[in-house]
Design goal:
CATH class of the largest domain: Alpha Beta
Helix content: 25-40%
Number of domains: 2
Distance between the termini: 17 Å
Structural class: alpha/beta
Number of helices: 17
Strand content: 5-15%
CATH topology of the largest domain: TIM Barrel
CATH superfamily of the largest domain: Glycoside hydrolase/deacetylase
Largest sheet: 6 strands, parallel
Length: about 450
């Protein structure tokens, strides 16, 4: 059975009429006995409180509420301020602003947890994905990596899913029966996320495209309203939305869920232990092919970053099995040797003791007088754990194989959307690619 999620980017705090879209989506779903995931911008929640939008808040009680950033497109957005050579500074800003945003959403919507986060437009960064996990939100609902038929991929310690089908325009401009063939396609997936923007069920243009293209308006509150759709189009959308829900229910190939249910079904065990023999075997495989590795005995997979951290702990003399935990990839340019380097095993062990514990895979590791990259040091540790008294490191890959996936290798965040003219995303894009160290499948 294919699991269907309904995800709604609830982002428009400018147009009061957008509330009709939220209200009717929520009520239509509830009328069919289904739950939606309303991914709310904090400024929208704040506006609901100021407008005393009791009907909307009451309608949302039957549904899940998730996060969609503090102010969405307001400049600088999460990608723009992540374009910073200083990782800690940009991460600190993210945590400060988004912690406040989460608190506003949870307070206004009366929730104690936000299970998923949705990026605004195409704006994301390694700081944002990792930062949301630190805030307790572990599902990247519209992630940037292919989700492998809906199964998802672990990336930056978050479960990366992807949006599959936007329902706004099809439910307005197509006959519902034209969508029937899609149901059979969706039924072949593990999971499908159907999404919409409540404001676009009512308006023809996005609120931010009119008010924040490339820069903020000079005066907060001096907004350009979005033009509304003809009432016949609005009514057609909601009639067809109800019809689509009934088609999905009657099909027989679907179950329905929320991000909370996805997380509770797929979150990793609290203790994913690696004993020394298993670690040695997996690390040897990673030394030959720098990618995630799977323990065939337990079925657990481990990212290259986790294997790196586990090997550091093992060589540093930790006596008990290593518990896999959230390790990030490098946040600065990973180095690599350009020619063979031979090192005594004790120098590798001493370097491991200096690194423990690993929170971020280091960009470079000093081993005696030699400077190794993280891939080099992983290969050195693999040799030492196999009993070598000295290691010879040949030039090899700096990044895991997944760094060459088109979703990472060809990503240029600044290519489109509402960014300031001339803004570039060099640090953002490179850091996302470096986080190939954190990729592993869910199965």
């Amino acid at each position: 059975m294919t699991q269907v999620l309904f995800s709604f980017d609830t982002e428009d705090w400018i147009n009061p009429a957008a509330e009709e879209g939220v209200l009717r989506l929520a009520r239509t779903l509830e009328g069919e006995g289904l739950k939606g995931c309303f991914c709310v911008v904090a400024e929208v929640a704040q506006t609901w409180r100021q407008r005393n939008s009791r009907e909307v808040l009451e309608a949302l009680r039957a549904h899940e509420v998730d996060g969609h950033t503090w102010r969405h497109s307001w400049h600088p957005n999460i990608a723009e301020y992540s374009e910073d050579a200083d990782w800690e500074r940009s991460l600190a800003r993210f945590l400060r602003e988004e912690r406040y945003g989460f608190d506003v959403i949870m307070d206004v919507c009366q929730r104690d947890h936000l299970w998923a986060f949705i990026k605004p437009g195409n704006a994301t960064s390694a700081q944002a994905i990792y930062g949301y996990t630190l805030l307790g939100s572990n599902i990247f609902g519209d992630g940037i990596l292919d989700s492998r038929g809906g199964r998802g991929v672990w990336f930056c310690n978050a479960l990366n899913l992807t949006y599959d089908f936007c329902i706004e325009e099809p439910l307005i401009h197509q006959d519902l029966q034209e969508l029937r063939p899609l149901l059979d396609q969706w039924a072949g997936l593990e999971r499908v996320i159907l999404y919409a923007h409540p404001t676009k069920t009512i308006h023809t243009q996005f609120w931010d495209g009119l008010n924040m293209p490339h820069r903020n308006p000079p005066v907060w509150g001096d907004w350009i309203p979005s033009p509304q759709r003809p009432r016949a189009e609005i009514e057609r959308f909601f009639a067809n939305f109800g019809g689509l829900l009934r088609l999905l229910k009657d099909h027989g190939g679907f179950t329905f869920g929320t991000y909370e249910e996805v997380w509770k079904a797929q979150r990793p065990p609290s203790r994913r232990q690696l004993d020394s023999p298993t670690l040695t075997s997996l690390l040897q495989q990673a030394a030959q092919h720098l990618t995630w590795q799977k323990d065939t005995q337990t079925g657990e997979s481990y990212t290259p970053a986790e294997l790196f951290a586990a090997a550091v702990d093992e060589l540093a003399g930790r006596p008990d099995p290593w518990d896999a935990w959230a390790v990030m990839g490098p946040v600065y340019e990973p180095q690599a040797v350009a020619e063979p380097v031979t090192l005594p095993a004790e120098a590798v062990r001493a370097a491991a003791r200096q690194l423990q514990p690993v929170v971020y895979v280091p960009a470079a590791v000093q081993v005696g007088r030699a400077t190794l990259g993280p891939g080099d040091f992983l290969r050195a540790m693999a040799q030492v754990l196999q009993g070598a008294s000295e290691t010879t490191i040949l030039p090899g890959p700096r990044l895991p194989e997944a760094a060459d996936w088109p979703d990472l290798a060809q990503r240029v965040t600044s290519r489109d959307w509402l960014y300031p003219v001339g803004w570039t995303s060099d640090w953002v894009d490179r850091r996302l690619r470096w986080q190939a160290w954190t990729i592993r499948p869910t199965d």
